[in-house]
Design brief:
Pfam families: CxxCxxCC (PF03692)
Radius of gyration: 18 Å
Helix content: 25-40%
Structural class: alpha+beta
Number of helices: 11
Number of domains: 2
Order of helices and strands: HEHEEHEHEEHHHHHEEEEHEEH
InterPro entries: Puta_zinc/iron-chelating_dom (IPR005358)
Distance between the termini: 42 Å
Protein name: Fe-S oxidoreductase
Bound molecules: iron/sulfur cluster
Length: 251
Amino acid sequence: MTSEDLMRRMERFIHSERHVTSARIARAFGGDPEGAVTCAENLVVAPGLSWEAGEALIALVADGRVFWSPITRTAYHLDGLFLDLPVSYVQRPFDEPTWLPAAFNSPRVHRRVMEAIRLMGGVGLGPEILDPDYGKRLYEIQSEIKCERCGRCCTLSNPISLEPQDVERLSAHLGISIRKTIQRYAGRVEVGGRGAWAMKRTSPCIFLDEASGLCKIHPTRPIVCRAFPLLSPRTVGGEPLAEWCPAARYL
Ligand code: SF4
Ligand code: SF4
């Protein structure tokens, strides 16, 4: 395969999948746990890629066919990558290897994500930081987790954090602008003394269909909903997660 073939296939994959972590690109096009694409001295934006996949991605970005935007590290955890590096969402050189979790987008989606990031003032906080070894163990047993559709998480969780990529996906799904999506569905909250964005209406979540107990936006639900309960804190509202969520008792 020529590298242009690889680039074309990778470009199609990224354009069709919307917000793609390098962990997913690695699974589709070749991975290397030691591989990393950097964008400034010691700043890792795309970990886990083979040399060939990394070169194709760099060339796509250099050609303006693919762009990257910062994303919560939880998106990487969902794709099974738990990197043991300090995280920064600021693009500048660092003395030590530092991770700037990034998602890769088509030019059109990238413009929309950057608008969401501008309006929201940056990437959100995401759930509690997972110890990489604990995260890897959880990821390995995820097939044991069977959601019982009790609807508790969608009824009682508060806040339900929203990332710029969540807003972008939701806006596309609902067919309304990024600004309107934020105005209608997002609100500012304080988590651990820091500001973040979350779903405006909870208890229950505005997108819960109470009759069926199902999520009305399931294919486009926020990252934090995808991560629950697998990557959640071990306690919710002071209650052990395993007692709070029936699916979590397998953890
Ligand atoms: S609380 Fe747990 S079991 Fe109930 S719907 Fe949520 S994930 Fe599923
Ligand atoms: S967006 Fe969907 S999955 Fe997430 S809390 Fe609301 S109803 Fe539940």
